[in-house]
């Protein structure tokens, strides 16, 4: 290991063991979430008794040492925060201004972070995705609103021109990390120059955790030889269908993931699977339950660009982009795989004939378990479709309100049992919502019941989760 004032990195190509430190790094710029204001120190991010800054009456510190250490970064914003009070500056605006200040008046343009003995990254090495931002309706609206806030907030720092400012904004939103506490709750956000070199995979071999404001990247698996080009972390929540993961990555990071997990045919069989009616059989049974229910995009060619633009523009017509006039994608076009077709899925993908059409009236005829041969009667298919639709509605309602309804979740789980396969993502997501609800009200014994039921889902859909405690302990 090579020790630097700002980071530690692995400087060898020797083998790596699970749990080994790959990188630790201080942020280029960071901010405590406004939801944690008054609960944590704005400098070290530790949760403790804090005192307000006597100037702005907004920023808090745990002691004089942190206040002194933060002064160079805080002094320029102190008067401006006081000026706009009682308004609260949005977290993204504060982070962007911290970046502007460091680049304009600090060491931002010369700041180097080494990730090997001779290789380093600087702010200018981060990608701005300028052309993608211009097409992104939601991000452009956010950028415009932030510009208004910045003009009101700043009086001693002249803003860059619009093009340069959008470049800074793009580097910030694409490369920033959500800072988590030990319970994996979001407490802030920061930009980490070296860590931003690590690409995404839905089947990661490394994980990023945090010690206060410092990011720590550790190996999740043994590797015979360390190679930065092969290190992958997950940027997003993994317990979703491949299509939902791909869509989120496309919206947030402007790429369609084509990792081995997304394109794993065997795993696709489980994401929306029904349970075999034979109680002792654990094989997934695939039943078509919803029109145009996409499971994965297989990227092939130019048409992915149009899907990309449809999603960025907030349009819902990306299904149309996947289809031609006959409802099929022709050879060489982008493919999507729908639910209810697992028995023939491998052959269909290999043929590259495009989208699998599951709207045929005969699609759910002769549904049988491929392992034990148990037939799925029409009434069981209708029950499965009803439970899946109910689960989807409940999950969307909870997502829109950011609240987990304990009794609703419990009722839904009762409906799901014996109908949905134990590794079905809807079942896993409802279980997790129920677990979180019991944790929030500190009913620990009941939470443990759902935690135990969740473990197989975590190990299958989100393998990093059950290792994080070990790696951060």
UniProtKB/TrEMBL annotation:
Signal peptide region: none
Annotated keywords: Metal-binding, Zinc, Zinc-finger
Keyword Zinc carried by entry: yes
MYND-type domain residues: 41-78
InterPro entries (alphabetical): H3K4_H4K5_MeTrfase, SET_dom_sf, TPR-like_helical_dom_sf, Znf_MYND
Annotated GO MF terms: zinc ion binding
GO cellular component entries: nucleus
Any single Pfam family the record assigns to this protein: zf-MYND
Protein name: MYND-type domain-containing protein
Organism the protein comes from: Pieris macdunnoughi
